[in-house]
Amino acid sequence: MLARSAWQSVLVTGILSVILGILILVWPGKTLLVAGIIFGIYLVVTGVLQLLAAFGAPARPGMRVLSFIIGVLSIVIGVFCFRDELASILLLGIWIGIAWLFRGVASAMGALSEPGLPGRGWIAFFGVITAIAGVVLIVWPVESVATLALIAGIWLIVLGVIEIITSFGIRKDVKKLV
Fold first, then answer.
1. CA distance 120 to 110
2. What secondary structure does DSSP assign to 8-77, as a single string?
3. Distances (CA, A) of 62 to 43, 56, 70, 74, 131
4. For residues 24 and 30, what is the distance between their CA atoms, to the nearest angstrom?
5. Global pTM?
6. Are 10 and 167 spatial neighbours (Cβ–Cβ below 8 Å)?
7. Residue 163: what pLDDT?
8. What is the rounded average pLDDT for all residues in the chain?
9. In the chain, what are the domain boundaries?
10. Which class for 34: exposed (0-12), middle (13-18), buried (19 or more C-beta within 10 A)?
11. Residue 3 clears pLDDT 60, i.e. is over it
């Protein structure tokens, strides 16, 4: 049952990525401003939740300290996003880059380490492309501020199309298993 719904999850993620990419390309300036504000709100909210976890969750002292540090940093960076639009866009670019890099590496490694994984080749390919996109955003956030919306929009469309293709590869492989 889980294998049958996996391809549908990948398909929906791909479709959403394509839609978001198109929206970003249509309204790049507004997209960056709104994304920066939402990113700041996100950081402040998650920072507060991390502080609550640091003091309220039953955890070892090391985890409490880590939650506290992450919470404080998130709040500080979130407030920074409200003070300077350029800083929020740069931080958002780096944040997306890190997320894509980790997602890409995790996907590629997962595909390489699991020989029986349905859609393995496509997942590995998706992982490599996602990791490359992440590196691009991490290495050149300052130089790409003016084109961040364009780059992110194009990458989201490309990654979305790859996810859509991957979903059908997974569906095909799942049918062979059933």
1. 9
2. HHHHHHHHHHHHHHHHHHHSHHHHHHHHHHHHHHHHHHHHHHHHHHHHHS---HHHHHHHHHHHHHHHHH
3. 22, 14, 12, 18, 30
4. 9
5. 0.54
6. yes
7. 92
8. 83
9. 2-177
10. exposed
11. no
Tokens of 168: 């059908």
**pLDDT tens figures, 11-52:** 998 999 999 889 888 887 777 778 778 878 888 998 898 888
Q: CB neighbours of 138 closer than 8 A, spacing ≥ 6?
A: 94, 97, 98, 101
Phi, psi of 57 (to 5 degrees): -80, 140
Encode pLDDT of 121-162 as tens digits.
998 999 999 999 889 888 887 666 556 678 788 989 999 999
3-state SS string for 130-156: HHHHHHHHHHCCCCCCCCHHHHHHHHH
* Contact between residue 51 and residue 71 where contact means Cβ atoms under 8 Å apart: yes
Residue type, 98: I
Q: In the 8-state DSSP scheme, what is residue 114?
A: -
